[in-house]
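agent> fetching stored inputs for the zinc ion docking request
agent> found them:
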Amino acid sequence: MGALSSVGASGILIDTGIEKILLDYGTKIQEVPPKFPIPIKGPDAIIASHTHLDHIGGLPIFFTTGDSIPVYAVNVTKPLAELLLLDSIKVSREEGIELPFKEEEVKETVKNFLPVEYRKPFKLYKTEVICFDAGHIPGSQMIFLNFGDKTLLYTGDFNTKDTRLIKGADQDLPEIDVLITEATYSDREHPERKSQEKQLIQIIEDTLAVDGICLIAGFAVGRLDEILLVLDSYGIDYPIFVDGMAKKGITIINRHKNLLREPDSLDKALEKVEYVSNERMRNKIIRNPCVILTTSGMLSGGPISWYLKKLYEDRNCSLVLTSYQVEGTPGKILLETGRYITEQLELEVEMFVKRLDFSSHCGRSELFKFIEKVNPEKVFCIHGDHTEEFAFELREKGFDAIAPLANNRIFVI
Ligand SMILES: [Zn+2]
Ligand SMILES: [Zn+2]
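agent> prediction call returned; pasting tokens
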């Protein structure tokens, strides 16, 4: 119902004839107003792959009428979803847009969350469900459905490689007939992680050497926490500040230490970090060289806008983008044009700007390797800008693969 030939607004409805199970119901945040998947009437159950808004951003739509529908997710996803959904309402309002739900519906939504544990089967009517660690962000899951005569795996967003924050996806999977896979990076490989880490450290050192400030922009959940671990592993001997929603995101994740690759890693990294609590503090910290980690990852709002307005002309300062930059977002436009353009402003940025790849998705070869290992009868390619090319390549390798398009009905028997 969404994320077809693109990233954003993920939504898959599984109708077995007995029960309707909805896997994710996200938003396409980069569109104004944000888009949702194809509208549907209340499903019997919802399973959320992880907390990113492109997967859960539309869930409150089902809770505007007082209905109760169980939403199955790993425990950490519940508080993170509440945080991100409330923020999505706030950000939309700042842009003059009212989403089709309000704060009360977000509260209602999270009340319906039920915790699942990795690898622990449960039943939804006739269907058996098992969730496997997807290795994408803390609490991310691949959803396995066993209908009795057929099985299906929806990968959600996944990463088979370990990061500093979490372990790679669980690949010890049952037999899978139908695979619905994300394909964000189906057309490219990630650069070697070490090289990205080294470049990041180099940029920080170069910036601080000329008394500049290094701004690091990234997603609040699963990215800035990863960056903190990188900085910690290279030895932090400079002031580090964390501002914006990342503070809450990191605090929630750190309460679920069992989901981290090394349970105490964030505690250790946070010893050297100070949280920014208000604008007065912001004004104070930008007087001296330091590193500031903040949101939003694609520069579309959040404290990063405040800092950019203050520092954009300073050639001794730098900005590192650590998240994927979707087409049309201020971050992407800045990389392409050198200008920071939002609703309110247009700035010619003089700072040093660099995007580094700290992706938490499989790269091209990991995607192929995973699909070859799973060896399904049928593959659906979604959640990527090049899903049709990817499906074509898979067909060339002998797989029965397609990239569904909007309003296409496909019957799998
Ligand atoms: Zn994601
Ligand atoms: Zn996604």
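agent> quick read of the result: The chain has a mean pLDDT of 95.
agent> awaiting further instructions
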